[in-house]
Design brief:
The protein is of the alpha/beta class and 346 residues long. The chain is built from 9 helices and 12 strands.
């Protein structure tokens, strides 16, 4: 029987491993993953994703058996491979086999899927996708363990997948069935911050146990505007003052749940009081206007004291996931393996 596979997991949003190559000493497979919101909310872009993956370059160089599998939360795997490749080549590792797994992006296929009979119902509420009126910005299928296993089986030492669950990464890289208890135990350990973990390979095929493939549809759920205002005088951040601010903003039609305020009194003489504010609204300009009104009210309650915008009001989109699924035979994936130098022009 094959020896156990030692797995370590790291979230891409955490960046490169702080301990460098020693962080994965004795590890057979490094799993890197992201949720589908991170690439859209600004916390994880192609550049930062590539930097996180490129941090493994030294480990690849020192350990010729090491494999890494990265699930990108919906980003373009070929584009990310194209960013990682020059870094590896610059370090002298220009022959590392990089496998790109395509097929996750279903954004342009949603209407065709619905015409084909897939309701794209919400996995928790059962609501049909047609009930969603907010703009859809991404739709990523969670490719299965079979896609990960195929990429490794075709020689990939760095596997880059557009989107996949941690369960699929574990099953596909360790060579065990998706519904194996070992997969659940490994994912539980990773969720608790434990690791590395060892998984015993089996003769079972590492594929999804059902005929449907999970899909994460991401939609824009309005906008949020935040502001940090510093002002003289503790009276501006008293509970009475904050309640007054909330009442003024909700009187303009905002729901109470859409207004979040926190006040911090000065910690010493001569220091400023701080108001932290966040307002959500369907339109960006409405959220920003609400915070402009908040600033004016704060100025009035501060008795004319000077205000400082430590963080001026600026709206940014909010995103949510519509979890659904489609028949697996409607999701096709492919694997392309090239040496590092071959991805430099991707």
């Amino acid at each position: 029987m094959a020896p156990p596979v030692r797995l370590a997991r790291r979230r891409l949003i955490e960046g490169p491993p702080p301990a460098g190559v020693s962080a994965f000493e004795g590890v057979g497979v490094v799993l890197l993953d992201s949720d589908p919101l991170a690439p859209l909310d600004g916390s994880l872009g192609e550049a930062s994703t590539a930097t996180a993956i490129a941090g493994l370059g030294g480990a690849f160089y020192l350990d010729p058996e090491l494999i890494a599998v990265a699930a990108l939360g919906g980003q373009d795997p070929a584009a990310v491979a194209g960013r990682v490749a020059p870094v590896f080549c610059g370090a002298g590792n220009d022959a590392l086999p990089i496998a790109v797994v395509r097929g996750h992006d279903l954004l342009d296929e949603l209407e065709e899927l619905m015409r084909g009979g897939a309701p794209l119902a919400h996995a928790e509420t059962g609501d049909p996708y047609t009930r969603l009126t907010a703009p859809t910005v991404a739709a990523s299928a969670r490719l299965g363990a079979d896609a990960v296993a195929a990429a490794i089986g075709n020689g990939g030492r760095l596997v880059v997948v557009g989107h996949a669950s941690v369960e699929s990464l574990v099953a596909g890289s360790a060579g065990v069935a998706f519904d194996s208890p070992a997969v659940g135990e490994a994912v539980k350990a990773f969720s608790c911050g434990c690791g590395p973990v060892e998984v015993e390979p089996s003769t079972a095929t590492p594929q999804q146990p059902t005929s449907s493939t999970p899909v994460d549809i991401v939609y824009r759920d309005g906008f949020a505007a935040t502001a940090v205002i510093a002002t003289q005088g503790p009276q501006a951040v008293s509970e009475t003052a904050l309640d007054h601010l909330r009442a003024e903003l909700t009187s303009d039609g905002l729901a109470e749940a859409d207004v979040h305020l926190e006040g911090y009194a000065p910690a010493g003489e001569g220091l400023q009081a701080i108001v932290l504010a966040c307002v959500t609204a369907p339109q960006a300009d409405r959220a920003e206007q609400a915070l402009m009104r908040l600033r004016a009210i704060t100025a009035a309650s501060a008795g004319g004291a000077r205000l400082h915008d430590l963080c001026p009001a600026q709206a940014f989109p909010r995103y949510k996931v519509w979890p659904t699924s489609v028949p697996s035979d409607l999701v096709g994936w492919s694997v392309e393996v090239r040496e590092t130098r071959g991805w430099t022009e991707a």
